[in-house]
Amino acid sequence: MKQVLNFIDGNYQDGSTGRWFDAVNPCTGQVHATVAEASGSDVDRAVNAARAALTGPWAKLSRAARAAMIQAIADEIDRRSAIFLEAEIADTGKPQSLASAVDIPRGAANFRIFADMTVNLAEHAWPMDTPDGAGALNYSARSPKGVIGVISPWNLPLLLMTWKIAPALACGNTVVAKPSEETPSTCALLGDVMNAVGVPPGVFNVVHGFGPGSAGEALTMHRGVDAITFTGETRTGEAISRVASTGARDVSLELGGKNASLVFADCDLEAAVEGTIRSTFTNCGQVCLCTERVYVERPIFDAFVERFGRAAQALKPGVPKDRETTIGPLISEEHRQKVLSYFDKAASAGATVVSGGGIPDVGPELSGGFWVEPTIWTGLSEDSAPVAEEVFGPVCHIAPFDSEEEAIHLANASPYGLAAVVWTRDLARAHRVSPQLEAGIIWVNTWNLRDLRTPFGGSKQSGVGREGGVYSLEFYTEIKNICIKM
Ligand code: NAD
């Protein structure tokens, strides 16, 4: 059986718990690897190694040399993309067409953007008058924040992990990463990459395990960690915030969503249907940016629902390598039970099921996997659980609206504020509506088009802080003011 190990101070190693847990292939339900669970003392060794590395050869690299090393990490991920692809697919069951186009290339791209950014960085300067007339010059300077604890979820494992590791390293920090227990493999492979390009031991470390009572909690509690960056559920983010307040450590939180799409009658209907299929069902609905609430202007409501339902029924579950597969499974049986519970809640609340609502027949080879049908409801009230709560599966509810004001009100009537989509051909409306939406990321006539220099993050219960481009610098560096008297 394949083993997935911790990576501490440049070496792969078992956990001193002596415990191993299973990595399960969601397509089949079968164990494909066994993972070494790190103990509190393993986490301690990882954090100590990361602290020691802050003052070693890593700190002495010039900015250009460090950026070149970060670029080399990206090249090495590209060189090993087949290995990363296989590991990511084994952990997640996602279609190969998706993982090879998005997950793995973005893993490399995340390193490239931040390497470029840190070498091209400019700082501010403020000349000031002084009573003696000589003047003074203030300027801002940045230094690494220190040891960064990185905790990530299972839906886009390499992509989301490297979204944090890359800026952390590019800014000169050291890292202890804890990938999701569901998807540990690609993060572990990064250890080999770091060694191959000569990243000094201790700069990058990986510990495996769970949240409370395991490696996740041990990492966030560790006072040798200077800042924590987390992506995952809002409730977990709240728990991590509480822990981070001990020692007044900085925390960046990318959390859950219940994202709305507004489809106006003046839209390109075909594009809106195709785009909403992507925004709802990509990665089996397991993307924080996915749409789960669709609001359609009444004159095109029936036409939209009919076309959208047909397109959802055409999605094809299957083995990841099959080119015809367009939708994968959910991540685990536990998550499937959660999603199925919303199918039940929708049924008992009297929903009309436009498509799906059950478990697809995927044949004997895949019958042990965690499959559910892409599911669309209409007719539910806004305060019913399937419409109000994040399901994080291939589901959405569609409701009609009659005016722009009502559409904005419906979109904003959620405790979450991560992403929103507006479908309209009216440019003035696009400009009018978008700024009124309470979300960190708003797309017009597209979805998930990402320029990595732009701010990424959520408002309300969807997060704290922004990452991406120069916005990541605010978190991954300590800015100081230097005042020189002339
Ligand atoms: P989760 O919160 O259950 O787990 C995320 C990570 O936190 C895992 O590595 C887990 O082991 C760890 N963890 C759990 N409890 C912990 C604790 N008390 N202390 C320290 N670590 C702990 O989330 P998940 O189920 O893996 O991911 C799905 C969620 O992530 C969804 O809510 C989704 O919306 C969200 N998400 C948000 C974004 C974003 O950018 N805003 C991106 C992807 C996913």
**Which secondary-structure class do the elements indicate?**
alpha/beta
**What portion of the residues fall into strands of 2 or more residues?**
15-25%
Major β-sheet profile = 7 strands, mixed
**Overall mean pLDDT:** 97
Share of helical residues: 25-40%
- Give the neighbour order of strands across the main sheet: 15-16-17-14-13-19-20
What is the number of E strands? 23
Rg, nearest Å:
23 Å
Ligand list: nicotinamide-adenine-dinucleotide
User: Overall 3D geometry?
Assistant: globular
What low-confidence regions span 5 or more consecutive residues with pLDDT below 50? none
The helix count comes to 16
Distance between the termini: 67 Å
Describe the structure.
- The model has no long low-confidence stretch (mean pLDDT 97).
- The chain has 486 residues and is of the alpha/beta class.
- Helix 5 packs parallel to helix 6.
- It starts with a strand and ends with a strand.
- The protein contains 16 helices and 23 strands.
- The strands form six sheets. The chain has a seven-stranded mixed β-sheet, with helices on both faces. A six-stranded mixed β-sheet has the order 10-9-8-11-12-22, sandwiched between helices.
- It is globular.
- The protein binds nicotinamide-adenine-dinucleotide (NAD).
- Nicotinamide-adenine-dinucleotide (NAD) is lined by residues 151-155, 160, 178, 180-181, 210-212, 216-217, 220, 231-233, 236, 239-240, 254-257, 288, 390, 392, 418, 458, 462-463.
